[in-house]
Amino acid sequence: MSYELELAGTNATWVFEAEGIRIRFVGGRRANPLHRALGELVVPNEALSGVIVEPGKRRTDLVLRLRPGADAFGPVLAGRLPEAADPYRLSLPGKQPDLAQYHATQLRDRISLNPRALEPTDGFLVVLPPAPRSIKGLDGEVAFDGETLTFTWGWMAETVKEQLGPQRVPLENISVVEWSPPTALGGFFRITLSDGTGLSARKPDNPAMRGMPDKDPYALAYGLGDGSVADLLFAAELHTRIVAARQRAELLPAEPAAPVSETATIADRADDVVEAIRKLGGLHEAGLLTDEEFSQKKAELLDRL
């Protein structure tokens, strides 16, 4: 297809560039809050896994599908984002199925060039805007300083949270981050610890507290008017940091207590180091490692040869 074409919808404009799809969201007070906060997103070709057309009575939607792991939204949302807020959905005014099908075909041709389009990505491919350092809810506040997540409780917190006091959780102790948008029924920001510590609010032996963010010491509960799309960016950024920390740990495992087996050849070790440096370079290019961290980790790997 010819590049630099634009397809304008009621919620955004898709610009078809050589390297991917640039999504420019409609601004203004009537715009979806998440779209307004994002402003613009670039979805690289290698992040795409599919596209579907959804015809309706008053509009036709074109929806991009991303490869697993292409952005940090999917894991923290788990399908809880309202359709109107979907950043990868373009709504065309009126019935325009032919126009939508044409662009869907062109997009599928583009996706077909990637033999790994249906596989998970090696890292995040969609870059999100900067996230706030703290967020607030009905019963408290959560802050992240780059190493530790801290929950502090306000005067509306449930007794169980007040009794436990502030919760400080190192990044390496967090396994899952979840975010549910504020609604009339509530919403939440929540984490799960890697060792299961402190999850009494979600244990079967405590049904009175199970699944209730207002009683979970590792959850921030929302009430009407609480929370914002910035909280989603906060959750996504935290998820990104967790994944980066895991990848660093996998690339630099602890030194074995016993000597390396004699059957391991120098060539085998060299191949492993080269592969690890390649993955490390991917983290560096994605902005998940600073220049200093990349140089240090690379040197450590080379020392193992």
From TrEMBL:
Residue span(s) of domain SHOCT: 275-302
Taxonomic superkingdom: Bacteria
Domain DUF4429 residue range list: 14-107, 143-238
Name of protein: Short C-terminal domain-containing protein
Species the sequence originates in: Actinoalloteichus caeruleus DSM 43889
